[in-house]
């Protein structure tokens, strides 16, 4: 088990990022606070950041020229954009090929968790867990773990990196 000073590495999918940085969903406030304190570190790569920037232009979102730059800064402040070499380890295929990249980032960054609300990714929970690479969690279950384990030692994967 890692000491509590070792941050938990997470991957946040686009919809979770919308909840955190656009809608400021209070249900996930513990995630925001853990990101701000450095207890968890969120990671992404360039193609996911580009997807995020494109999503911010969707007309149904409460994003406009007045708040877009701040939302982008908040994302960039809390999420590290990395260039990652593939580990080459084979992953299960996601039924939504656009979401495969989140699995790849989690694998290649040695993340502890992929936090998602996406049904196609959540369907892969058991397969990914059997590979002992990382855990796929909903924001609800991740926050429940943060509440139950405020020092974070107990919520890392069995093979914590």
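^ structure tokens above, recovered residues below v
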């Amino acid at each position: 088990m890692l000491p509590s000073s070792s941050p938990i590495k997470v991957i946040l999918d686009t919809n979770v990022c919308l909840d955190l940085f656009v809608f400021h969903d209070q249900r996930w406030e513990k995630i925001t606070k853990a990101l701000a304190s450095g207890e968890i570190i969120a990671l992404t790569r360039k193609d996911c950041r580009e997807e995020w920037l494109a999503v911010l232009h969707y007309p149904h979102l409460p994003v406009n020229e007045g708040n877009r730059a701040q939302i982008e800064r908040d994302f960039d402040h809390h999420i590290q954009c990395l260039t990652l070499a593939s580990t080459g380890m084979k992953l299960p295929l996601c039924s939504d090929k656009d979401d495969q990249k989140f699995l790849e980032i989690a694998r290649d960054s040695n993340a502890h968790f992929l936090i998602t609300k996406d049904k196609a990714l959540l369907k892969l929970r058991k397969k990914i867990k059997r590979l002992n690479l990382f855990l796929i969690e909903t924001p609800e279950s991740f926050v429940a773990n943060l509440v139950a384990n405020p020092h974070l030692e107990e919520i890392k994967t069995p093979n914590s990196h």
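Residues 8-155 form a domain with the Rossmann fold fold (CATH 3.40.50.1010).
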